[in-house]
Amino acid sequence: MQLGDLQLLQSLLAENRWSSVFILTDENTNKHCLTSLMMCIDFPVNPEILEVEPGENSKSIEICHQLWWALNDLGADRNSLLINLGGGMITDLGGFLASTFQRGIDFIQIPTTLLAMTDAAIGGKTGINLGNLKNQIGTFQNPVAVILDQAWLETLPSREIRSGFAEVVKHGIIADNSLLKACFETDVSNQEEVFQLLEPSLKVKADIIAIDPFEKKERKFLNFGHTGGHALESLTLNDEDPLLHGECVAWGMMIATLLSIDGGGLEAEAAKELIRSIDSYYPDIQPEVEIEKMWEVMLRDKKNRNGKVNFVLLSKVSKPIANVEISMEHFAKACDDLRVMREEL
Amino acid sequence: MQLGDLQLLQSLLAENRWSSVFILTDENTNKHCLTSLMMCIDFPVNPEILEVEPGENSKSIEICHQLWWALNDLGADRNSLLINLGGGMITDLGGFLASTFQRGIDFIQIPTTLLAMTDAAIGGKTGINLGNLKNQIGTFQNPVAVILDQAWLETLPSREIRSGFAEVVKHGIIADNSLLKACFETDVSNQEEVFQLLEPSLKVKADIIAIDPFEKKERKFLNFGHTGGHALESLTLNDEDPLLHGECVAWGMMIATLLSIDGGGLEAEAAKELIRSIDSYYPDIQPEVEIEKMWEVMLRDKKNRNGKVNFVLLSKVSKPIANVEISMEHFAKACDDLRVMREEL
Question: Are A342 and A286 in contact (CB under 8 A)?
């Protein structure tokens, strides 16, 4: 897999190795990103555009089924290329689409959100949802390339950028102290500052995946903050104004940090310090969901097994440990304690 | 991937590395094979049985969707095992199911037909159909093991065995003269004789796949006889008594052999000799479909590109060449010539 900017995309296309090119977009990226992509890039063959509705609901089997047919009807063959232009929904869905059409065609990810840039587009995970169950169906398949361009960040609301920033912070927490320090000195409203963090952040992820591509061991560290985060996200999905993925992960990282005191041996002072820093970016993310419901969702999480809930915790900052079993009582107490602690910050 | 008998399955299960075990069957294998499997094997955890209707129609996205839900509802997790007990439909469908559920769980293939033993179960190709388009959706994913047992052949009608035999012959034609000679000395009504051919036949396939797992070059040789064969199969799928896959491949191998005289440089005498041998096992396979319709299907075949139809041909017996472009006129003439030649045999 290659990582680069639009120039890399141009030079890959110039090699002319694909029989046809398809671009998957949603309404938003079709409106805000596609024109500029078409102006910047000289396509050797005129690409066909596939468009789905924005939002998590498009990551469904039904939409995927329609897209398989669309590729087929538009004459896609094994030598076709699919370019996925969009946020994590598009890169996940398009990655799955490409990795299963005719047993796999080439695809290139062009993530247009910070979240997709730092998380969804690299690492080879593709996925669609089974009902409300996130990424229950998917594959591991690397794209030919991931194309990053700062210009897309300008198309994003600031809340989206703050959401994606949580994954950058996560990479700092699990593996890179200097990245973490840089994160907590960053003004998230400054796109250039944020974009600067991407390279070290992606390096953390790429290094981990190189060691453990199929999530047998080290790759699990990347799930730090995601056990609680995913549960929160699932339960608020149908709210009028649902929480964003990164916002949920930010809360999930705070709860995992607190659980790390008993469960991982993290020093209480270090835990409090880290929670204070995360909270300063996400003071408004205070979930009001029932612990029992959250627990049920966590039990169904594909990362858990045998009816137990496992967390990634910290023994120190940048020293994560995977598969720490936590009881519901312990989790419930941590949720209460976190609420009290944050009120006192 | 390991290849072995029921003892291998028993020893894998005894390692107790899976949290739960699922067995995918169709009505036929549920009736004829499952009881004997359950009697031979001591399962450490009681397996859950999934059953689909027999026949190609179960290799659909709708059925796959139901099976994803079934796995989910029955508590399958990333450490579950899926055992696929059946013919090629079950091993293809079950392989796809396992390779996409939660981004891939372990699976074991237990092919119960000769065709699945020699072709479908090994090589890591999984697939479901998109409408009438065979294996249009799929993945490359190796099973943990393929389990072969001669006893299953006793459950099969003789026509099924003759059909699977075509794939064994194919392996002889493309790579192993002594296997080919043994094939043409075999009495296909004798299950033991046929089962003896499996090992050298699977060796041909395994050797080719080891060199070229993703079908970039040598693996294409395994498609010998399949360009014409698949088209014939598609067009007769809805007949009252449809031709079997291997029967179609037998015809496809005869037409490819004839095309090889002009297209591959195969000596006319060698071609005639080979066609005579194949015909002696499949004298009744005389397709009556329109050439134009067959051509249309071949144009849509995922192995073709840019509106051209490519065949795997022979320059000599056991010396295949891939990607030989054939025109519709040439193909139509070969169909006529083959009919005349076979009448005169």
Answer: yes
Instruction: Take residue B254 and report the two structure tokens written for it.
Output: 């005869």
A84, A56 Cβ separation under 8 angstroms: no
Q: Which of B46, B36, B39, B43 is nearest to B15 (CA)?
A: B43
Q: Which residue has the tokens 């998957």?
A: A24
Contact between A102 and A87 (Cβ < 8 Å): no
Distances (CA, A) of B68 to A6, A60, B50: 38, 13, 11
Single-letter code of the amino acid located at B256: A
Instruction: Mark the ranges of chain B whose per-residue pLDDT is less than 70.
Output: 302, 305-306
Active site residue A219: yes
Q: Are A136 and A61 in contact (CB under 8 A)?
A: no
- DSSP notation for B288-304: ---HHHHHHHHHH-TT-
Domains of chain A with CATH codes? 2-154 (3.40.50.1970), 213-344 (1.20.1090.10)
Cβ count within 10 A of residue A325? 12
Q: What is the pLDDT of residue B16?
A: 81
* In the block, residue with structure tokens 């639009």: A6
Enter the pTM of the model.
0.87
ipTM value for the complex: 0.86
Minimal Cα–Cα distance from B127 to chain A, Å? 7
Residue in A103, A126, A303 closest to B125 by CB: A103
Q: Provide the token pair at B285.
A: 């396979």
B51: helix, strand or coil: strand
Name residue, tokens 């075999």: B186
What is the DSSP code string of B224-282?
Answer: TTHHHHHHHHHHHTTSSSPPPHHHHHHHHHHHHHHHHHHHT---HHHHHHHHHHHHHH-
**How far apart, in whole angstroms, are the C-alpha atoms of residue B295 and residue B309?**
8
Grade residue A301 by pLDDT with cuts at 50, 70 and 90.
confident
Over residues A79-131, the pLDDT tens digits come to 999 999 999 999 999 999 999 999 999 999 999 999 999 987 788 999 999 99
Residues in CB range of A8: below 8 A, 6 or more apart: A2, A145, A147
The pLDDT value given to residue B166: 97
Closest alpha carbon within chain A to B302: A77
* Lookup result for tokens 């009681």: B46
Nearest CA in chain A to B70: A130
**Is there a contact between B78 and A125 if contact means CB atoms under 8 Å apart?**
no
